[in-house]
Structure formats: C-alpha cells, structure tokens
Design brief:
single chain, alpha/beta, 2 domains, seven-stranded parallel β-sheet, five-stranded parallel β-sheet, 9 helices, about 30% helix, binds flavin-adenine dinucleotide
Length: about 325
C-alpha cells in the first residue's frame, strides 16, 4: 500500500496549526485513495510530539531528534527529510506552506527527483494523478495543475483546510541520522526574536491589520488596544510598512505573509489585490473604512463605514465591557 507522508513543522515546542490542517486533509485523501498516513517530526522535541501527530491520524510517526535540526538550517533539514523519504518511500509528501518549507522544498525535490506542487489551496489524489488548485495572479485566479510523477511534494497554504482530530494508536519510528556540522559552511550566531510578547502572525486566530487610514501613533495605539483585547497578532498593509509605522515582519499580502485567522480586522485598508492575496482565506473579515466604495468591502463579512479614529475607541470600549 502506498503512503502519504506529512512533514510537521514545529514552533515553540508545538506542531504548527498549518501542519495539522495539511495533515487533516492528507488523512482524508489517504482514506479515499487506500493509502496509509505517516508523519515526520524533526528536532530535539520530535519524540514528545509524536503523540500529537497520532491524534490527527498518523499511523506511523518518523522522528529525527538530532538537535542540529532545531535551528531550521536548510542543509540538515533537507538531509533529514531525504533520509526519511528514502526510508518511508511515500507516494506523496505533504507540508504546510511555511517560509521554512518554501526554503527547502525545491532543493529537496531535486535530491529526491520529485515533482513539486507548491503553495496550493487544495489537493487530491485520483489513481496515479495528484492534482491541485494554486492561487495565481495575486490570488485572483486558481490554476488547476496535476502530475503523474512517481513522487510528488505538495505544500498547502495555511487556512485551506480545517485541523480536525482523528486519533489513532500509531507507532513512533526513530530514524538514525547524523550530520557533520563542519560541512555547513555557515555559523548560526543568534536567532533574533520579535521584541515583546507578540502573537505569531501566520498562526494567529485573530489578526488586527492596519492600513494607511491608521495614519499615526494615535491610530497605532488604537490598533494595539484592539489587538490586546482580542489576543490578536498585528498585521499591516505595505503602505504603513513603507512609512515605518509598522515593521516589515507585519506585512500581509502578495509580498508579505499569508494569513488565515478565524477573525481578521482590516482597519483603514483599501483592499488592493496585493493585500487581499494574503488575507482572503480568513474566516470572518471585519473591515473598517471611511470610504463605502473601498474594495475591501467586497471581501468583508462585516463592514463598518466610518472614521477608524471614531469607531475604534467605541469598539474597544464595547469589546472590553463584553469580555469583562
Ligand atoms: C508588486 C506589488 C506587491 C505588493 N505587495 C503588497 C503586499 O504584500 N501587501 C500590501 O498590503 N500591499 C502590497 N502592495 C501595495 C498595494 O498595491 C497597495 O498599495 C497597498 O496595499 C495599499 O495599502 P493601504 O490599503 O493601507 O493604503 P491605501 O490604498 O492608501 O488605502 C487606505 C484606506 O484607508 C481608508 N481611510 C483613510 N483614512 C481613514 C480613516 N480615518 N478611517 C477609516 N478608513 C480610512 C481610505 O478610504 C482607504 O481605503 C503591492 C504592490 C505591488 C505593485
């Protein structure tokens, strides 16, 4: 029986939500195509996370616990994944489309002679064909792509599927792996963390995103207050990243991050296609904009037409009262 292998990305000692979403879809595809579902977890916490992967349906969890994998350096990650793929011989390898996965996918595919379907919004298997839909042209269109290659890698956009548990009593298989750090040719000196106790944007359940309408420090403070009340991560349009009001790491869109929270507040954002490409998969979108014709209202679930400097103080006060 062929197998589907899911690469579980780990962050802060947990399997990323986007990986669990990809695994939930892979589980359904495996069931429909008569394949077994396997997972791979890398890093010193791998063994402790095998149970989490089984909770989402992985019958076999391959773990590679070498601490050199904790730093997400591409060369050891590629070598470890290649070892697991050579060992498990899957038909299909599925991963969440994270920045780290984007970094290794091409090189890994070359080493394994695999076809790649990157950054897909959906995928399926029918007979020997793996098919997918990929957002293209700033997510304005979906391109249908398929391949009959014997080994296929698929990376899945976060928010494309829901993460649902389906526990199995699986087995963990530790893979022997060694990597000569001297061959790296680079030294990791420091991992720089974002200052403060911030919520990770690409994994957040709630995002408050600010655009040019937020204008200045006063607006930024109102956005921060809404984020604090709702436990949200803060995002931004490119316009306010370019003015320096928000850091580049907050940019959402075609050339920024792709997010898919349950709730997305777009404050003073016009809704240019390059921005919408990064947030259109959000479940509920609340747009606040003083221009009733702003394109953001075309994708919004709820729209508040008005000045955000008047709306946000009222909204924040009401939310505080309701959540007290
Ligand atoms: C190749 C390329 C890549 C790009 N990549 C990205 C990307 O990744 N992410 C991204 O965001 N952009 C990207 N852009 C830029 C994009 O085209 C837009 O210019 C940008 O998204 C606009 O940001 P904005 O909505 O904040 O500003 P604007 O378009 O200027 O809109 C501001 C909005 O705020 C409203 N407003 C003003 N004052 C108030 C107020 N007091 N209260 C309420 N509403 C108010 C206005 O009505 C308006 O709708 C890219 C562009 C190109 C060409």
């Amino acid at each position: 029986m062929s197998s589907i292998l899911v690469f579980c990305s780990v962050q802060d000692g947990r399997i990323k939500r986007s990986s669990l979403e990809a695994m939930s879809r892979a589980r359904d595809v495996a069931a429909a195509s008569g394949s077994s579902l396997q997972a791979v977890v890398l890093g010193s916490s791998a063994s402790g996370l095998a149970g989490e992967a089984m909770k989402y349906g992985a019958g076999t969890v391959f773990t590679v616990s070498d601490p050199i994998l904790d730093a997400h350096l591409n060369a050891p990650v590629i070598a470890a994944l290649k070892s697991v793929i050579d060992h498990a011989q899957p038909r299909l390898v599925v991963a969440a489309s994270t920045e780290a996965v984007k970094d290794v996918l091409g090189a890994l595919a070359v080493r394994c002679d695999a076809a790649v379907l990157p950054d897909v919004a959906s995928f399926d298997v029918s007979g020997s064909t793996v098919s997918c839909e990929r957002p293209v042209m700033a997510a304005k269109k979906l391109a249908a792509t398929s391949t009959d290659h014997s080994l296929v890698f698929v990376s899945v956009r976060s928010g494309s599927y829901e993460a649902t548990e389906a526990p199995v009593s699986g087995t963990e298989e530790a893979i022997t792996f060694s990597f000569d750090a001297d061959t790296l040719g680079l030294t990791l000196r420091e991992v720089v963390q974002t200052a403060g106790d911030t919520v990770d944007l690409s994994e957040a359940n709630v995002v408050v995103a600010a655009g040019r309408g937020v204008r200045d420090e006063e607006g930024r403070a109102l956005v921060q207050e809404l984020a604090d009340i709702t436990g949200a991560a803060i995002g931004a349009s490119r316009a306010v990243v370019e003015t320096g009001l928000f850091p580049a790491t907050a940019q959402i869109g075609q050339t920024g991050k792709v997010v898919s929270p349950d709730l997305y507040f777009a404050v003073g954002i016009s809704g240019a296609i390059q921005h919408v490409a990064g947030m259109v998969n959000s479940r509920i979108i609340v747009a606040i904009n003083k221009d009733a014709d702003a394109p953001i209202f075309d994708v919004a679930t709820y729209g508040l037409v008005g000045d955000c400097f008047k709306i946000l103080p009222l909204l924040n006060a009401e939310l505080k009262r309701a959540m007290a």
